[in-house]
Design goal:
The complex is a heterodimer of chains A (351) and B (188). Chain A is α/β, with parallel strands linked by helices. Chain A is built from 11 helices and 12 strands. Helix content of chain B is 41%, strand content 20%. Chain B is built from 5 helices and 8 strands, in the order E-H-E-H-E-H-E-H-E-E-E-E-H. In chain B, the strands form 2 sheets. In chain B, strands 1, 2, 3, 4, 5 and 6 form a 6-stranded parallel β-sheet that branches. The chains are: A alpha/beta (351), B alpha/beta (188).
Chain lengths: 351, 188
């Protein structure tokens, strides 16, 4: 765990992440500018730090409705206005990037932030980057595995000699600068592919898994498969942290939370995936066994602890600013999360 | 109500003929319905490569988005080699999982022989069910002998197509009401 800068004694790390989505406004609302949205993301990170949260993540997308394409720049700006909060990508689309460049960017961020940078590397659940940068979606798996291999090697040994299919070879190359303590925590982002969880386990790297909706027990299977694969490959799962990422909405009144949040969730799904969020599936959110994190602080505490029983994860980060959520509400959710949910969760897990 | 027709083959005229009659019947009987007939022969649709349907451009993007916006879909298909044509299967492959949730889908099929009668039952319906369609159970099966010079010459077939239109619209209205009733029970 120490390799990944996770302190067991702290119970569970809690944090926020943003994908920088900027959808066209719902009919009644006014369209927000890219400029304002960018500034709001920085403000949100500052609020998260002030509230005592542990982690802040910024996603990466390269297509309409998402403005976070230059993740290290945004994280760098946040580094300048915060002191303690960990800065992670959530997640870097490694498949369409040069691992050397990614490593340079995050090593720089690590130095600028006094050792707070982490890379969460994924294949991208939105495919805009593939067309834009001239990669073939048919190489979806190969691209990632090759680049992830190089990224991990850059983190273990330099100078490095390396050869692959998708990048010119490296001969005795050294990358500058180095991260603050010589190494960066590098996680594998896992979405809905079971095989990706198994692959993370085989490589013995920490897993950052999305658990957005549906029965929480579904993701338990993925977590188990990850730990089993790690054990079979000779790694100690106790040394490998797991992060769970999802979306969250809080209100003191649980009924009001359920009612107020639905339009934002539905807007997000309709815009980003082209499919409305089914109301009957959303109604299941009232069950503690369902992964949709909407409700009163008490409900969310119970849900997080229930998931912790299943996954024994070490980090839990939530997206709270999606679907054109007004910033006023974002601020309110941060406050409820930090003052009511976080202390209770930390206390319960420490015991 | 948005009704979209898909004429599922890029060769031949029989399916197209039957679809044109069907959409003429809709226009006469339900002038308020918003209808679009997509004849795949008129579009250059690429093979599915796994991306989200909204990310396709050109004809492919037009076809997928039009289908996804429909309340009801009428699929017309010929039978090739004891199955649906690859061009029609590709349309399904381009769409997301659960694409037909909350949509009513009905079918008409043209075939060279009566031996193909159960093809739709055994091959098309399972795909639609998997994609969560509300299926109009009765489909119209039209044989080669029912056509003459790009017209349907069997009155029985014409009556059955009229009924298919009625059933499609009726089921769409009914299903919309059921859904509204269900959604009204939710507090959000």
């Amino acid at each position: 765990m120490e390799t990944y800068r996770i302190e067991r004694t702290n119970g569970m790390e809690l944090g926020l992440y943003t994908l920088g989505d900027l959808f066209s406004a719902q009919s009644t609302a006014q369209q927000m500018s890219e400029h304002q949205r960018m500034k709001d993301m920085i403000s949100m990170a500052k609020l998260a730090e002030e509230a005592g949260l542990d982690v802040f993540g910024v996603g990466e997308s390269h297509q309409k409705y998402f403005i976070a394409s230059s993740t290290p720049t945004i994280l760098g700006t946040i580094a300048g206005v915060t002191k303690k909060i960990k800065l992670i990508s959530a997640s870097t689309v490694l498949s369409t990037s040069d691992p050397v460049r990614v490593y340079e960017n995050f090593s720089t961020l690590d130095l600028l932030s006094d050792g707070r940078a982490e890379i969460v590397a994924g294949r991208g659940s939105r495919y805009g980057a593939y067309d834009l940068f001239g990669y073939n979606l048919n190489d979806y798996d190969e691209l990632f595995e090759e680049k992830f291999d190089l990224l991990l090697k850059l983190n273990t040994k330099q100078p490095i000699s390396w050869e692959g299919r998708f990048r010119s070879p490296l001969r005795n190359a050294e990358i500058f600068p180095k991260p603050l303590n010589g190494k960066l925590p590098i996680w594998r982002a896992v979405g809905e592919h079971h095989s990706s969880a198994i692959q993370a386990g085989k490589l013995g790297v920490p897993m950052h898994i999305a658990a957005l909706y549906g029965a929480s027990s579904v993701f338990e299977k993925r977590v188990d498969a990850y730990r089993r694969a790690a054990t079979e490959s000779g790694f100690d799962p106790k040394k490998l942290p797991i992060a769970v990422a999802t979306m969250m909405y809080l209100d003191k009144d649980s009924k009001k939370a359920l009612k107020d949040y639905f339009p934002y969730l539905n807007h997000t799904f309709t815009r980003a995936r082209g499919i409305p969020f089914p109301m009957d599936r959303y109604a299941e959110a009232t069950s503690i066994k369902n992964a949709i994190m909407v409700g009163s602080p008490q409900q969310i505490i119970e849900k997080i602890l229930y998931q912790h029983e299943l996954y024994r994860h070490n980090r839990f980060i939530v997206q709270i600013d999606h679907g054109n959520m007004p910033f006023k509400k974002v601020r309110e959710v941060i406050e409820l999360f930090a003052t009511e949910v976080a202390p209770a969760v930390r206390k319960a897990i420490k015991n | 109500m948005k009704i979209v027709g898909i004429s599922g083959s890029i060769v031949g005229s029989k399916t197209r003929t039957a679809m044109e009659y069907t959409f003429k019947a809709i226009a006469e009987k339900y002038p308020d319905a918003e209808v679009t007939l997509i004849d795949l022969a008129e579009y250059k649709v690429q093979f599915s490569d796994g991306r989200n349907y909204m990310e396709y451009e050109g004809d492919t993007g037009y076809v997928t988005k039009t289908i996804m916006e429909a309340d009801a879909i009428i699929i017309g298909t010929p039978v090739f080699q004891a199955s649906i044509p690859g061009t029609l299967k590709n349309i399904f492959d381009l769409l997301p999982v659960n694409a037909f949730r909350d949509k009513v889908v009905s079918m008409l099929v043209t075939a060279g022989t009566s031996k193909h009668f159960l093809i739709v039952e055994q091959q098309l319906k399972p795909i639609l069910a998997y994609m969560k369609a509300q299926i109009v159970q009765t489909y119209v099966f039209i044989e080669e002998q029912d056509f003459h010079r790009k017209e349907i010459v069997n009155d029985d077939v014409l009556f059955r197509l009229d009924r298919l239109v009625e059933d499609t619209v009726m089921l769409t209205e009914t299903y919309t009401n059921i859904r509204k009733e269900k959604e009204a029970q939710y507090d959000f």
